[in-house]
Amino acid sequence: MTEPTQATRTAHDSLGDLSIPAEAYYGAQTARAIENFPISGLRLPHAFVRAQAIIKWAAANAHRDLGAIDPAKASAICAAAEEVIAGKHNEWFLVDVYQAGAGTSQNMNVNEVIASRAAELLGGERGDTKLVHPNDDVNQSQSTNDTIHVAMQIAGVEQLAHQLNPALAKLESALHAKAEEFAHIVKSGRTHLQDAVPLRLGDEFGAWAENIRRHRRWLEQAAANLLDIGLGGNAVGTGINTPPGFAQTAVRYVAEFTGLSFRIADNPFTFNQNPDEVVLVSGVLRNLALALQRIANDLRLLSSGPRTGLAEVELPAVQPGSSIMPGKVNPVMAEMLNMVAYQVQGCDTTVAQAGGGGQLELNVMMPVMAANFLHSIAILVNACDVFADKCVRGITANEARCHQYAEHTLSLATALNVELGYEAAASIVKHALAHDLSLREAGRALGIDEAAMASALDTDVISQVVPRTQAQAAGAAGARQAAGAAGAAGAAGAVQASETAPAANNSLPSRGAATARTYGQRPQGSSD
Questions:
Q1: 218: Cβ–Cβ under 8 A, 6 or more apart, which residues?
Q2: What pLDDT, on a 0 to 100 scale, did the predictor assign at position 420?
Q3: SS3 for 270?
Q4: What Å distances lie between residue 413 and 193, 194, 406, 407, CA to CA?
Q5: Cβ-based neighbour number of residue 230 at 10 Å
Q6: Which of 61, 92, 146, 182 could join 201 via S-S bond, C-beta 3.0 to 4.6 A?
Q7: What is the greatest pairwise CA distance in the chain?
Q8: Do strands 313-314 and 263-264 pair parallel, antiparallel, or not at all (unpaired)?
Q9: Sign of dihedral through CA atoms 245, 250, 251, 255?
Q10: Residues 6+ positions from 2 with CB-CB distance below 8 Å
């Protein structure tokens, strides 16, 4: 059976004519790129194409304001760009990630699609470059060299502000909720994977929550550098072929559309030569991935078992864990988070190497930088979101197991140092090990006063955080005095409730999701 012939039209560029599908919004340069780069089947994500279209929208508005383009043509370009921004023409962005250096093919893909659609909006045919030309009109006052770099930064800040920051906030909140839920549970600490002095399970979770908060802050600080964009620098930074005032006006429109505080880069030559802002933020994403990797590994250890591991916590059972061992449940969400963390580290290596690959007035490795940078953000968003919902929020504690380990760890002997001295405490540990006894039993066998041992080895007391400042100590003492006749338990509760109590099991200050305009914004008067 003969296949129906696909309708075609003739497209033209500086190399000549070629046939492309009649329905295609792209033109000759995109078609050549599709033919030249059948490398991976991977495309730059919609977030990047959206950022490119925002640039085209901002440029057309700036040209209209500056009297550099026909207003009707500018309006058509803006309307077509808005459709691209909304994702209406995603099927026509077909250039492979591994493409012509700097992203010329990617830039032309967007120029051609917007030009074709703008021509239709003006009453013409799809691909009619006489009505709207992809180079002369859509790409007016622009170059691949400034716009691809700018698009990386716009897409990056939008994804960080609107997706990753909220996902991290959710994970931080989920960990903090578990810190409060487990605040009363005493367990054995572990250093060097060996027994250590007791602490509270809530403090362990609280430390993870605080670390996520720190990484959110560091990421926001780094993201401030992405707000400096060199739009209008054009090919090498001189702004050749741009009307005076174009850069400022276009950047103002980018800020207006996105609701983010974009501003002109201090030096357009530096900007065109060095995509170092993306390298910087990618490195912060790598560090975040390492922090998430550590949390995932800790939870895998703490939930190991259920009969032959630590089994201090139980992770939610979200799917069967084995195709051969019935009833087995694995820490799949933590394993997923590990894999994402490894991938982000790999993406960062690519971004860093590509970031150092520039020569003279340009770095031509930006397409692969953009792909890996935005991929890191996307998978971190999804991983943190799923990990918070399907793992952290459903974690339960095995309180009996935690108590058993806390009472039997030989590192409790640390608390005997003050009462008995290091040498005597060490002799108790050696006797306990040699005769498979608890410290209390070993102390009794060696004739140590049982009351003194019981007092020194009270795990509830040992696991409380010692006040770190004089103010905290005074507050804790005042709370105990106020509790008075309520006894030790009541006093401990008052200490926990007081504002000046040590920050154990603690109320972490929660950084709410930053508003779009202020995300990554430098404090007034600050400098790089």
A1: 284, 287, 288
A2: 86
A3: helix
A4: 18, 14, 12, 11
A5: 26
A6: 182
A7: 101
A8: unpaired
A9: positive
A10: none
Cβ within 8 Å of residue 161, ≥6 positions away: 223, 260, 514, 516, 519, 520
**H/E element, 17:** strand 16-21
**Distance between CA atoms of residues 385 and 173, nearest Å:** 11
Which residues, 6+ apart, have CB-to-CB distance to 131 below 8 Å? Answer: 73, 118, 119, 122, 124
- In this prediction, residue 1 carries a pLDDT of 55
Burial (CB count <10 Å: 0-12, 13-18, 19+), residue 244 = exposed
- Taking the C-alpha atoms of residue 397 and residue 177, their distance in angstroms, rounded to an integer, is 13
pTM confidence score: 0.89
- Smallest CA-to-CA distance from 221 within 511, 519, 524, 525 is with 519
Pairing between β-strand 228-229 and β-strand 194-200 as defined by DSSP bridges: unpaired
C-alpha distance from residue 465 to each of 172, 364, 456 (Å): 22, 54, 15
Contacting residues for 176 by C-beta, under 8 A, at least 6 apart? 205, 206, 209, 508, 510
The neighbour count for residue 240, using CB atoms within 10 Å, is: 11
- Among 349, 356, 348, 345, smallest CA distance to 373 is for 348
Q: How far apart are CA 489 and CA 313, in angstroms?
A: 26
Q: In angstroms, rounded to a whole number, what is the distance separating the alpha carbons of residues 188 and 399?
A: 12
Positions marked catalytic: 192, 322
pLDDT of 3 reads: 60
Tens of pLDDT, residues 268-283? 999 999 999 999 999 9
Q: Which amino acid does the sequence have at 343? A: Q
Q: Report whether 10 contacts 19 (CB < 8 A).
A: yes
Of residues 99, 93, 5, 100, the one with CA closest to residue 51: 93
Cα–Cα distance, 184 to 120 (Å, whole number):
67
List the Cα angle 474/477/478 in 5-degree steps: 85
Half-sphere exposure of 2 (CA within 13 A, CB side): 3
Q: What was the pLDDT predicted at 520?
A: 79
